[in-house]
Amino acid sequence: MKTDELEILVREALGDHADRAAEPADTIAAVLAPRRRRPVIAYAAAAVVALILLVAAPLFLRDAEPGSSSVGSAGRLMVAPKAVEFPVRIGPTWLPEGIKEQERYALLDGTGMTRSWWSDDPQVNGYNVNVVVYDEYSTTRHWLYGCDDATEQVDIGGKYGRIRPPAVDDQTTCLRFSYEPGKIVVVLMAGSVNDVDTLLRVGRSIQPVSSPPLVVAGVFGELPADLSPGFAGVTRDVGAPGTWLVAVPAVGAQKYVQVNWTTKGPESASLGKPKTVRGRPALYFPAGVRDYIRSDELWVQFGDHWLKVLYHDEKDLKGDHVPWLLKVAESVAVGLPRNDWIGGRP
Amino acid sequence: MLISFEQYVRDNARDLLRYATALTCDPHPAQDIVQSVLLRAGQKWAGIEQLASPAAYVHRMVTNEFLSWRRRAVRTVSLPHGVIDAVVPPSADETDSVDQRQLVFEGIARLPRKQRAAVVLRYYANKSFAEIAGELACSEATARSHISRALAALRSDLPARAKEAL
């Protein structure tokens, strides 16, 4: 083939590719809408507004008709909202060898956070250490592990604490103590290796630390009326960082909606029922389709990222949750900001 | 004359999406790239609009985003033929020219991203070799090399009879 004839073919083929471009309306809306909505205030106040939006957005949106909310129309593309930082002020300064920080999640009202360390290698049996710090009078602390059944008294650097040693039916070990007035610390060891001496050493090492904050970018759009955003976090599960948001009821834990944004796709894609969400391919998995799928799930593909929406209702496991899965998936906005603490150690 | 960011977006979003789709061979990541670039451009528009050619600057941002895109990792693997067939079903017209065009269409999606970017800049955006070198941050000789190797790869995809006929 002569070069100029091949070049003509290439020009035509590139034109064919370009002809498949999406209509620009969604892109224009996604790019310009945030600018119009952004309040003209000092940047210092912007973070506060973002946090309020994170918590309160569903209060304004949940009663909207399906598909009619502004988030739904402007959010067909995944426009991550402004990131919110949750600072870390105290933490362990000693941990067993071989484990790295893999997960953090925070109560959205800023009253508590859980940090978790485990090995990078899933084949390695080892320590799994979790440190929870929360305000004693937090009204949402029940979403964090509390070690409330610890009874055995211990001394933590002059502070009164209680531990729960491993038992036959529960191999986890936990420690709970008051770091300072109004600030509770819980250390939980849940790995295949745990012992009270190590637990106490971790607990006694807790002091003020300088650690990068947890950074979360996510806003629910539509939610069931009895749920509101409760907590959010970032996790690295087998090397794939992801963001997750959870909407919870005011009381109880029998119902929740969880959203994950990650590069990990569904494990049993062939079992999913095809759907279309935001104009993109999606898969729906009803609860029970696999043993490990205990809630209805909807997975939406964005290039090599996946948006996973999970709807769980203990009292209505067999109910039709697809409409809400679709509404949540259509209206949520979530991203994965840089989190410099991932993989770190004290 | 200075142009507002809003006006720039309204006037150029379609062209940028077409360019990004030619680069990625997939409209979905193309949307993500253009959106990401425009959001960043909006944040520093006060500086961009002072440039001699804001459009050229944003165009280059799209190219750079495509080349450095983390999420490109999966897409650099060739698109499955089933995907391409679903978008452009095989034509009922069995002429050689249609076959060749389809083969080139698929072959472009399999090119390494730098070669693909060079080909798109040359044959879609009609840039000179010097302009391509500037946009890809390489020498003009390297730009020519990218295009030459890309054309060789596309030519090798064609059946022997087509190569002989042309």
TrEMBL record, chain A:
Organism expressing this protein natively: Actinokineospora diospyrosa
Residue ranges of the TM segments: 40-61
Could you tell me what this protein is called? Answer: DUF4367 domain-containing protein
* Superkingdom, taxonomy of origin: Bacteria
* Keyword annotations from UniProtKB, A to Z: Membrane, Transmembrane, Transmembrane helix
TrEMBL record, chain B:
On the tree of life, the source organism's domain of life is: Bacteria
Annotated keywords: DNA-binding, Sigma factor, Transcription, Transcription regulation
The RNA polymerase sigma-70 region domain is annotated at 9-75
Per its UniProt record, what InterPro entries does this chain match? Answer: RNA_pol_sigma-70-like, RNA_pol_sigma-70_dom, RNA_pol_sigma70_r2, RNA_pol_sigma70_r4_t2, RNA_pol_sigma_r2, RNA_pol_sigma_r3/r4-like, WH-like_DNA-bd_sf
On whether Transcription regulation is a keyword of this UniProt record, the answer is: yes
Task: Give all residue intervals belonging to the RNA polymerase sigma factor 70 region 4 type domain.
Answer: 108-154
Keyword Transcription, does the record have it?
yes
Similarity comment: Belongs to the sigma-70 factor family. ECF subfamily.
Q: Which PANTHER family match?
A: ECF RNA POLYMERASE SIGMA FACTOR SIGM, RNA POLYMERASE ECF-TYPE SIGMA FACTO
Q: What is this protein called?
A: RNA polymerase sigma-70 factor, sigma-E family
Name its species.
Actinokineospora diospyrosa
